[in-house]
Write a structure and sequence with these properties.
two-stranded antiparallel sheet; 6 helices; Rossmann fold; four-stranded parallel β-sheet; globular; alpha/beta; single chain
Length: 186
């Protein structure tokens, strides 16, 4: 039986990311049109290419191929009233609500989707892939990738992590330890 291989790729940088703002349906910061299908040969064979419905994921997916399936389950977390708002502004105007959201994964103080709801959505989508052999490349968002990682790392995570030769992982501490997945954004 052929295994399911899921490669999750975070969309290319947007101005909202650069300015530490919660996302809107913004385009990529880069000239993605001139780079159209420039990463087509990033994978052996022809993987099934999926992306979230947002403009930034569709533009990023166009770097990898022309036949892209838009999947609602890959959409970004719904940040409710915080769409487009900077983290700094929230720390000033809604500090208690922001901290509650950061501390409690069931909290949705912004009026949108909680982290737990996002994790459930992503878990259901991943369950549908379990019987889908072959390579799937999904262009999505940092929060969706985090939710997918939580599905993989639950319980005793130590033996569920494969470390390939010359692979790299970056950990950063800024009040708490964070895992950083390194990209090669041009």
């Amino acid at each position: 039986m052929q295994a399911t291989r899921l490669t999750l790729i975070c969309h290319a940088r947007t101005v909202a990311q650069k300015l530490a703002r919660f996302p809107t349906n913004e385009p990529l910061e880069m000239d993605w049109q001139s780079a159209h299908v420039s990463r087509r040969h990033a994978f052996k064979g022809t993987p099934r290419l999926l992306c979230g419905p947002e403009l930034r994921t569709q533009q990023t997916a166009a770097l990898f191929g022309e036949e892209v399936e838009v999947v609602a389950a890959l959409s970004d977390c719904d940040f409710g009233q915080w769409h487009g708002v900077s983290i700094n502004d929230l720390q000033t105007s809604q500090a208690v609500a922001l901290q509650a959201w950061l501390d409690d994964p069931t909290s949705a103080t912004h009026g949108g989707e909680s982290v737990v709801q996002l994790e459930q959505r992503v878990a259901q989508w991943m369950k549908t892939l379990e019987a889908t052999p072959g390579h799937i490349v999904a262009i999505t968002h940092p929060f969706v990738i985090r939710a997918a990682l939580m599905q993989v790392l639950q319980g005793t995570a130590f033996n569920q992590i494969d470390v390939e030769p010359l692979s790299a992982i970056e950990l950063r501490f800024n009040g708490r330890w964070r895992l950083r997945l390194l990209g090669n954004d041009a």
